[in-house]
Predict the structure.
Amino acid sequence: MTAPAQLPIDALLPGLAAALGRAPNLVLTAEPGAGKTTRVPRALLEAGLLGPPEAQAECWILEPRRLAARLAATRVAAELGEPVGGTAGYAVRFESKVSKTTRLRFVTEGLLLRRLQSDPELKGIAAVVLDEFHERHLHADLALTLLRRLQRTARPDLKLVIMSATLDAAPVATFLEAPVLTSEGRGFPIEVRHAPKEDARPLAERVAEAVLAVQAERPGHQLVFLPGAAEIRACTRALEGPAGRQGWRVLPLHGELSAEAQQEALAPSAAPKVILSTNVAESSVTLEGIVAVIDSGLGREARHSPWSGLSSLATVRISQARCTQRAGRAGRTGPGLCLRLFTEADFRARPAFDAPELQRADLAEALLGLHALGVADPAALAWFEAPPAAALQGAETLLRALGALDGDGRMTALGRRLVDLPLHPRLARLVLAGEAEGIADTARLAAALLETGDLAARGSLERGRDRQPGGAALNCDLLPRLDAYREAEAADFHAGALRAAGLDPGAVHRARLARRSLGNASDTAADPDTALRRALLLAYPDRVASRGEGRSVRLCEGGGATLDPASRVKADLLLALEADAKGASVSLRLASALEPEWLLEAFPDKLREEDTFEFNASRRRVEQVSALWFGEACLDATRKAADPADPRAAALLAQAVQGKDLGEAFDRLVQRAAFLRKHRPELDLPEDLGQALLVQACTGLVHLKDLESTDWAWAFRARFGDAASQLLDKWAPETVQLPKGRPAKIHYDGESPWVAARLQEFWGLKKGPALAGGAVPLVLHLLAPNMRAVQVTTDLAGFWERAYKELRPALSRRYPKHHWPE
């Protein structure tokens, strides 16, 4: 055994052991690099807190990522002078190194939940350590909730330790009724620098500039944090030239790589390394020799949309806590530098902590696991922080659709089979549906590939690889991915052959492990492609979508999306298998064609027929649309001219022409009717007279051309009756008869009705006419021969008495050919 170097956490370990001897729970906060991940579990073992050696009780240490679990176990084993798998071992999905002598087991968070399902009392586990709890992964929050529940029931002796470098300790300490210990020490100081101003250049260009500047100032290994594998590839290309000239090594590090490729990035190296990493390097044991960290301030975040049922990854600005965690990677083995590619103002504007994944994730798998543990009402569980009620309801709705829960929310026999498979419930349902369809092997492979993702190198979409010559249409975008895997299998998964075929060996390796974990099976179906599409429907019943204009689709759960241009599915009815989200926009990357009769067979109670009316603008008519719906997705629709006798047709035709120019006759009638409504309120004429007249005129019509010859006076009489029509003509007439001329048109478009005519046409009229039974005098526009008003008045008698006498001489001189009597 080699004596381990002293770390800041070491001084706190005796007090930590003593505190856990007095109480079962503890919250520990310690700076990045303090040594908590490797030293605390060993301290529990050496203090006898796991029980006597002969009991062989274990401490499980939950890590947020597989890389962290492997590295931590390896470091502890090295400090103990043992191989991994002895006293210290690890278990992650598809891989484990443990033995009967293992006492410290480093695991990914999801494995504890699997263990709880098979062993609800966690027999043989004396303590559980939740490391890097500040990341607030779904499985970590769920584990904390269930472990506390177990403590309060069958296992009051179970010890819980919550650890983090950047945790807000008070809430979790209150939940556990636990003391908080803090390690103040940091291994080495870290200088943090921010960008002086916002920089809109591409990220790869900014990273390359920063790497060159830091190498010039502090030669050595650098760790660059980037949001995802695509950005890592772009930065790799940008650094290839300088790295070749100056003798650096540029190495990727992300969760999609094989364990061997990850180890290559972490292995000691004499030549300076630039490690381009996602968040996998945020929390793990020390990366040897890192002198500087370059932080893009960005990360990938999984998001689930309850309205569409679709999950996607979004690039987000990480929290202050995660920025601090990343900076801490630079001060592990010496004074460090953290260069942030964003301004200090940007940093201060970020949230202090990340939102818990429990608040934004798909809860279907967690909810099914809770039901398997006998938690019949997850909403009533004593959560550390409860998930949104809508997310719980959405997960339960999906589990019912998959057949995992019955109508009363109880787990079914099918649900118990689903929970036994190491897959998301919908992928487990795909496996079981495939067995029923005679494609047990294909369904297992499809589930593994849907879980692990693309196989193509450099992130390209495998469906660009032609299953049919010339890029012909496919009925399922998943089929080329299956073909690619089978090509790899035929090549015995040889890395060189995979690269030659355009495949990523790391992605193929992950898919192979996932496929192997599901066991062996064989196919018997005569048409496996069709059988696969039928099985996919049972796994994705909430993802049915109907094709609209171009590549737009309507999702059965509501909302719209766009089919990725690379998709070769041309069907009008499809399943959305994979999606990307950018803001409010959703792009479907992987789709599968559906046949409507499959929905009728599988979900007859979810189909509904509806008859609706729509105005067809191109045909200028109202049509009756008979449609078959699955949720909000239209499976089939037929159109025909609407029945003229249906009042809905009249209302829709009226709505279609509302606001359009219907001619002067319509406008004048509406104005006259409005005048009558104002002065005869007892008639109870509607406020929206125009719409009422339109609906009446449209009664019995379905085509716009039939409306063009409408007699609006008839429409008024038909709608409001003869009495109202007669009163309209009497109280708001179309014209007024003047003594010396033809009937003059009355205008109702102003505040008061008015009429305009030459002054001579009013001779012989002593008093001006009035409307509304004599209550409203007409406004008279008295015009000169040039048709310009010489007077506007409602007092014709006063005009003759005063104004005319003054105007007459001037009118006589200006218009001598006209007679101007005294």
Notes: The CA atoms of residues 29 and 212 lie 35 Å apart. The longest strand covers residues 573-582.
